[in-house]
Automatic annotation (TrEMBL):
GO terms for molecular function: catalytic activity, acting on a nucleic acid; nucleic acid binding; S-adenosylmethionine-dependent methyltransferase activity. GO terms for biological process: methylation. SUPFAM superfamilies: S-adenosyl-L-methionine-dependent methyltransferases (SSF53335). This is Methyltransferase 4, N6-adenosine. The keyword Acetylation applies. Pfam families: MT-A70. Belongs to the MT-A70-like family. It comes from the Eukaryota. One of its GO terms (cellular component) is RNA N6-methyladenosine methyltransferase complex.
Length: 471
């Protein structure tokens, strides 16, 4: 269970526990009894080179083998089977200190800046070229003023609600006061290199020869060997319907595919395989790559314009009464866009606004609550697709109405944009057999279909630790 505590303000989540409860077990058959021609659980793209489109040849193959559910047969004899279990690296959730220390931040703010929100002017002390202090007046822009006004409205909700959940976390032992020993043990984490460049690979795949879209079905990782050209990987939804994990290899990089999960690796221009599956979803979670100044300056991450986000075919993907959830940054421009333009264009009615509050392992906000730059929370806008004349799926099953102003409090993963899981938080508000879809996903989870041009990013084997295998 990822829900550690559920109180009236919301939920205290254990993100790491959710990942490790997925049951990342890989079943492997061993030689010599399995024979020299035993298929491997991998997708071989090693021959592909990222610097040339001509590298996409018809000889590259996608090989998959489900050794977990395959019954023994004459060809295998008494083949030995080992079970390799993986867990997510716990150090990626070791957030022992706030990213900005509140006391230092407040001291600097009081010394160097005096704000006057009433007239929208602040005074800053800065050093001139000759080393003397001088004062300058800086006028807040409209976006800053809107952000300050919004923060003032929700500040009490964030502070009081999260404090209640954090105190419960201390009582149960889930959270611990920061100790000197714990502080000294925290070391920088070496992250795996993104040598596969999934997003670039998806961009290059658009230049592959087009296939007959109407004939393509989902590609299932089944018991027997299957071999298809690389075009299929980018033009078909890949499914792992077994009860065990599969490992695939893409351009020399290994990724774990959890049980009962499916994914499509593509960019926004190649979403048609989702539509070709003729499946609609009861829950759609969206984490758009919002445009902002830091993203534009760094040039490390791609982003979408509001017009491109509006073109996502939510009306075609959504089942009647579908619950649509969009992650929103703290920029009021994005918040207004979702509420006033995006949801109306999709015929989605807003039902609630929640917040994800990020804390350390010792219960502190990762950023000072009143920081003018970074806030320790992000927003989620929840809406329902307007009811259609089509009968609702399992209309006899009742679900609870969505409550407003709920908090999701958790220790964030140190990986960029690794959002907390919503599956257990949403279980009371969706049907038990509801189909779930995550757009712009960077990881997979059982029972969900995930789509994005980095959909396998956090499934990289280097983010996991192999435990001692069992035969």
């Amino acid at each position: 269970m990822s829900v550690v505590h559920q109180l009236s303000p919301g939920w205290l989540l254990d993100h790491l526990s959710f990942i490790n409860n997925i049951n990342y077990q890989l079943h492997q058959h061993h030689e010599p009894c399995c024979g020299e021609n035993e298929p491997t659980s991998s997708v071989h793209f090693d021959s592909l080179q990222m610097d040339s489109l001509t590298s996409f040849g018809t000889s590259a193959t996608f090989n998959a083998f489900d050794s977990a559910t395959q019954p023994d047969n004459d060809d295998r004899g008494n083949c030995e089977i080992s079970i390799q279990k993986y867990v997510f690296r716990s150090e990626l959730f070791n957030v022992t200190k706030p990213y900005i220390i509140s006391a230092v931040h407040n001291e600097c703010q009081q010394r160097n800046e005096k704000e006057y929100p009433v007239d929208g002017v602040k005074e800053e002390n800065c050093l001139s070229i000759i080393g003397k202090k001088r004062k300058r007046c800086v006028v807040f822009n409209q976006g800053e003023l809107d952000a300050m006004e919004y923060h003032t409205k929700i500040r009490g909700l964030i502070l009081d609600g999260s404090s209640e959940l954090i105190q419960e976390g201390f009582k149960s032992g889930f959270l611990h006061p920061l100790s000197e020993k714990w502080d000294k043990c925290s070391e920088p984490v070496t992250l795996p290199l993104d040598t596969c460049n999934l997003s670039e690979l998806c961009a290059m795949a658009k230049h592959l020869p087009s296939l007959n879209e109407t004939e393509l079905q989902a590609l299932q990782l089944m018991e027997q060997d299957i071999s298809v050209t690389e075009q299929d990987l980018f033009s078909r939804v890949v499914e792992n319907n077994s009860s065990f994990t599969k490992m695939i290899t893409l351009m020399g990089q290994k990724y774990l595919v959890p049980p009962k999960s499916s994914f499509l690796l593509s960019d926004i221009s190649c979403m048609h395989p989702l539509l070709n599956c003729r499946k609609t979803y009861d829950v759609i979670v969206i984490d758009p790559p919002w445009q902002n100044k830091s993203v534009k300056r760094s040039n490390r991450y791609s982003y979408l314009s509001p017009l491109q986000i509006k073109q996502i075919p939510i009306p075609k993907l959504a089942a009647p009464n579908c619950l649509v959830i969009t992650w929103v940054t703290n920029r009021q421009k994005h918040l207004r866009f979702v509420k006033e333009e995006l949801y109306p264009s999709w015929s989605v009615d807003i039902v609630a606004e929640w917040h994800w509050v990020k804390i350390t392992n010792s219960g502190e906000f990762v950023f000072p609550l009143d920081s003018p730059h970074k806030k320790p929370y992000e927003g989620l806008i929840l809406g329902r697709v307007r009811e259609k004349t089509i009968p609702l799926r399992n209309a006899g099953i009742k679900v609870l109405p969505i409550p407003d102003h709920k908090l999701i409090v958790s220790v964030p993963c140190t990986l960029h944009s690794h959002k907390p899981p919503l599956a257990e938080v949403l279980k009371d508000y969706v049907k038990p057999d509801g189909e779930c879809l995550e757009l712009f996903a960077r990881n997979l989870q059982p029972g969900w279909t995930s789509w994005g041009n980095e959909v396998l990013k956090f499934q990289h084997l280097d983010y996991f630790v192999a435990l001692e295998s069992k035969s």
